[in-house]
Amino acid sequence: MLTEILLRLPPAPSSLPRASLVCKRWRRLVAGPxxxxxxxxxxxxxxxxxxxxxxxxxxxxxxxxxxxxxxIPTAFFSFxxxxxxxxxxxxxxxxxxxxxxxxxxxxxPSAGYLSELSVPQGFDCWTTSFSGTVLxxxxxxxxxxxxxxxxxxxTNRTEASACVYSSETGEWxxxxxxxxxxxxxxxxxxxxxxxxxxxxSLYGNSHGILEFDLDRQCLTVTSFFKRVHTMxxxxx
Amino acid sequence: xxxxxxxxxxxxxxxxxTLISSxxxxxxVEAAAASLSQTLQLTILDGGGGGGDGIPLPNVDSATLSKxxxxxxxxxxxxxxxxAPNATAVDRAELERFDNEFVNIDQSVLYSLIMAAxxxxxxxxxxxxxxxxxxxxxxxxxxxxxxxxxxxxxTPEEQAEMNAHMLEYGWAYE
Lengths: 236, 174
Description:
The complex is a heterodimer.
Chain A: H1 2-7, H2 15-20, H3 24-31, H4 33-43, E1 51-56, E2 59-64, E3 87-92, E4 95-100, E5 103-108, E6 113-118, E7 130-136, E8 147-154, E9 159-166, E10 171-172, E11 176-179, E12 184-186, E13 192-194, E14 197-204, E15 208-213, E16 218-223
Antiparallel strand pairs in A: 1-2, 3-4, 4-5, 5-6, 7-8, 8-9, 9-10, 9-11, 12-14, 13-14, 14-15, 15-16
Chain B: E1 16-20, E2 26-30, H1 31-34, H2 38-45, E3 55-56, H3 62-80, H4 89-102, H5 107-119, H6 123-137, H7 142-148, H8 156-168
Parallel strand pairs in B: 1-3
Antiparallel strand pairs in B: 1-2
Helix pairs in contact in B: 3-5, 5-6
Family (chain B): Belongs to the SKP1 family.
Pfam families (chain B): Skp1, Skp1_POZ
Protein name (chain B): SKP1-like protein
């Protein structure tokens, strides 16, 4: 019954630290992985925005958004500053996909876990024209602790490829390729999820869109005849 | 009009069961309402609790049982509709109003209800009383939570542990 009560505390960052100080029994309960999983699942739909990460010259920095006592200090995530050359590829469904030269990391800031993945073979030499996205299995509200990582890159002069990692199997699938003009390539920017497809912008001497269809597991390139204006790099 | 013997139906008399509290008070209630308790449901489905028999509840006193049954009677029609997917907004608002008032009670009564809802496995009531206690402690400091729930003051050893933990999560107490 105590579990049922504490699960109903509001999803504010100060809720569980405070509850865990009441007595030993409460502390053991709220620190348990089972409790934390249920707490996250229960509140995922109405979770508050805790803050945001920004990428600066000194690395990734956290800026809190809430007022005390729910204001998580910047120093709480200071380990990010120690990851040299670290870039945020994508934030989605409460997960952050990080690229730290030659490896990828999926980080769940609310659960505190970090899983490291190697970049799959064939993609490792192309990390300057490379992008990725992470999706939690089941999405935002009903998701579980498993996730999929999608990376896209130019893998040779004439092709772009995608590769999908599943945390359930712990493996990368086979690369999926499509023809892509050598004049454009993805850059390390987050993908966009629309319906059941992921999209990335392609940049270079010409522009286009790379689409990965989650259901059909196929990759398509759409080229633009004219250069388009983007938020990312406004062209004159 | 002949009422069916065990009719839970909409016409005629609904089937009644008798529940007996720990202090031997007998409560006659519709089977549909008592069946909100997972613990009682099987006994009632097997035909128990009818006639002169009655189901003894040695862990629930009459004051608490009367309160529990008030909840069950109010919620039985909605539960019979499978969580009332067709309920109107007015019906839902009325149940919500009832629930809010229902837990606006003395802490000692609330604790007896928590135990009874747990023992009788009444899901909706468990959830309602758990939410009430969560609301009582939300936003409070650990010491305020202890006082609210009537815990004794921490021992020096507990206090030392609390201080150590506060160093790590000091921001949560600002």
